[in-house]
Amino acid sequence: MKQFTGLLIEFEEKIKHLIEELQFLKMRAYALEDENEKLRKEIMDVYEYYLKEAGDFRNQRDHRQRKGIENLARLYNEGFHICNMHFGQFRSEGDCLFCRGFLEKNSEGWQDERRV
């Protein structure tokens, strides 16, 4: 019987040690989950920042392109060719199909100063 009691005590000590190890592992898992959540948030913040920056860059590029087309439309309205065939030459015979085609192709989706 003494041997059996000794085995029970030894078994109880092993269980206590396993419980302590389990508690340590649980605390480590909680810490890793917290760190993971913080890193996910940080990644999302960086991702959103870069998306905003990319959007700002696209808006600036679109604005510059729109201004360029508006300037070409203004030149066309002042009587100059803006097509690649006669760029900068004065239009003496009314509208140029190439210039009009260029303006129509490049000014879709927004208003410009060209005359209709």
Structure description:
With 116 residues, this protein is mainly alpha-helical. It is 74% helix and 0% strand. It has two helices and no strands. The protein has helices at 2-77, 97-106. The chain is rod-shaped, with a radius of gyration of 37 Å. Residues 109-116 have low confidence and may be disordered.
Low-confidence residue ranges: 109-116
Q: Tell me roughly what share of residues is in helical segments.
A: over 70%
Largest sheet: none
The radius of gyration over CA amounts to: 37 Å
Termini separation comes to: 110 Å
Question: Could you spell the SSE succession in H and E letters?
Answer: HH
Approximately how much beta-strand content do the residues carry? under 5%
Provide the descriptors you would attach to this structure in a database record.
mainly alpha; 116 residues; single chain
Summarize the structure in short.
By secondary structure, the chain is mainly α.
Write the layout of secondary structure elements.
Layout: H1 2-77, H2 97-106
